[in-house]
Design a protein that fits this description.
globular; binds zinc ion; 453 residues; 4-stranded antiparallel β-sheet; 26% strand; 14-stranded mixed β-sheet; alpha+beta
């Protein structure tokens, strides 16, 4: 197994007997650089499509030619299965208490067959299976085990292989923190979907969306096996998880936390990100966010920017937010300065193009819009007919399509709508009984198109 360890301290020496792993390499940096160079090799595969996540794992026979919106039925169906809310009797203990109540010395962190001693960093490898063609495909797992006890926070990126901003966020966060100044542990998986990443693709090579298969099944399809391996070998060791994503298919997102605000532990996480937009969103079945939260690991999604690009502003915002969370959990003592807090959006809606043609936007990400305001135009290139897209809501543009050719029904602008209503209210009938998710979801839900995570 290939791995390297990094000592956290500067001059202080500790016996190597504290490291129980097979191989030790003193190195001041992780060796992610070579991996990042693969970024340059990534390229967009045109015309790729998703497949039905409910299939049994049999090989694909049909080369489907679905368009973007054809994904909506699958995602909506998945969302409808989600009826279970967070158990109301679960103790509402802020994660930061794990630091204050932790007693004694920090312990070795056992992960992927390796014990990482307190005060050390390590680069491990996770290989899901002997994948495709019988060649194992492994991807780095970065570990920082702090010298003081505390919670284990995990970062995952590129579950969709074409979402690059999160990869760079993980690299920056994991290189910026010394184990000597950390209470608890950080685990970072910069590139979960390594096969998709190498092809510049959102999907696995069999065109399945990995983020519809968690927590996975060791005997299922390739996607289900990869999901299961990640979940059992890495995710199960986390006390909390941040899954990093971008918009998909020529759409970009304002940096935002997507979280199920009905879950108190998840809410605690969202409060640590500094001035970052928070969007209430119930996770779809099969997403890593849903599966991990169901397993008792509170999880949020951090969305920033669009696919197939490295956007420095978005990366910096994400890194600052994650480092602020790490500090607010009591894991570091670093403080970061933010401006005015961003609002929480309990509701959001996609505004669609009603006609096909060339979409040109009149607003930008983060724009505040009023009801009736012009968002963009769609012009038919053949007959020069122009239609306007106006906002049915007052709110904020938290996601939008890049200028492109669109079909009627294309989801073009994602408007965050500020309401006074907390999500727990919207999910309860007058008598307090819970409304099923399928009833609560409107047709304008962000799940349509699979646009989120
Ligand atoms: Zn994604």
């Amino acid at each position: 197994m290939l791995m390297s360890f990094t000592r956290g301290g500067k001059s202080e020496r500790r016996g190597h007997t504290r490291i129980t792993a097979m191989k030790l390499t003193i190195s001041l940096t992780f060796r992610l650089g070579a991996f990042m160079s693969l970024l340059a090799a990534s390229s967009l595969l045109a015309g790729e499509v998703a497949v039905d996540p409910s299939d049994s794992g049999a090989d694909l026979l049909n080369d489907t030619t679905e368009d973007l919106d054809s994904r909506s039925s699958e995602v909506t169906a998945a969302a409808e299965q989600f009826v279970e809310l967070a158990p109301p009797d679960e103790p509402d203990v802020p994660l930061a208490d794990a630091v204050t109540t932790a007693a004694g010395n920090a312990k070795p962190l056992s992960l992927l067959g390796v014990d990482v001693a307190p005060g050390y960093s390590a680069r491990l490898n996770w290989a899901a299976t002997e994948l495709f063609e019988g060649v194992p495909v492994s991807t780095p797992v970065l570990v920082i085990n702090g010298s003081e006890p505390g919670p284990t926070l995990c970062l995952t990126a590129a579950v969709h292989g074409d979402e690059l901003n999160g990869i760079e966020m993980v690299r920056r966060v994991m290189h910026d923190i010394s184990p000597d100044r950390l209470s608890g542990a950080l685990i970072g998986v910069p590139i979960v979907n390594v096969q998709g990443f190498r092809r510049g693709s959102r999907y696995l090579p069999d065109r399945r969306d990995l983020n519809r298969y968690f927590p996975g099944n060791p005997n299922g399809s390739a996607a289900a096996r990869i999901a299961s391996s990640l979940f059992e070998n890495v995710i199960a060791h986390c006390d909390a998880l941040i899954d990093l994503h971008t918009g998909s298919f020529e759409r970009a997102n304002l940096p935002q936390i997507r979280a199920d605000l009905r879950n108190p532990d998840v809410v605690t996480l969202t409060q640590g990100f500094g001035a970052t937009v928070i969007l209430h969103s119930t996770p779809g079945v099969g997403t890593l966010r849903h599966a991990a939260t169901q397993a008792g690991i509170p999880t949020v999604t951090l969305e920033a920017g669009g696919p197939l690009q490295l956007e420095l502003g978005e990366v910096k915002h994400g890194v600052k937010g994650i480092e602020t969370l790490i500090s607010s959990l009591g894991m570091t003592k670093r403080s970061r300065l933010w401006g005015d807090p961003e609002p929480v959006y309990y509701s959001s809606s996609w505004v669609r193009a009603d006609s096909g043609g060339i979409l040109l936007s009149d607003v930008s990400l983060g724009s505040t819009v009023r009801r009736g305001q012009l968002l963009g135009t769609v012009t038919d290139p053949m007959n020069n007919a122009r239609t306007e897209i106006r906002s049915p809501y007052s709110g904020r543009i938290i996601g939008m399509a890049r200028n492109q050719v669109v079909m009627p029904g294309f989801a073009a602008f994602h408007v965050g709508i500020q309401t006074d209503q907390a999500p727990v209210d919207s999910l309860e009938d007058d008598d307090g009984s819970l409304v099923s998710e399928s009833e609560a979801l409107t047709e304008d839900s962000a799940y349509i198109d699979g646009i989120s995570e």
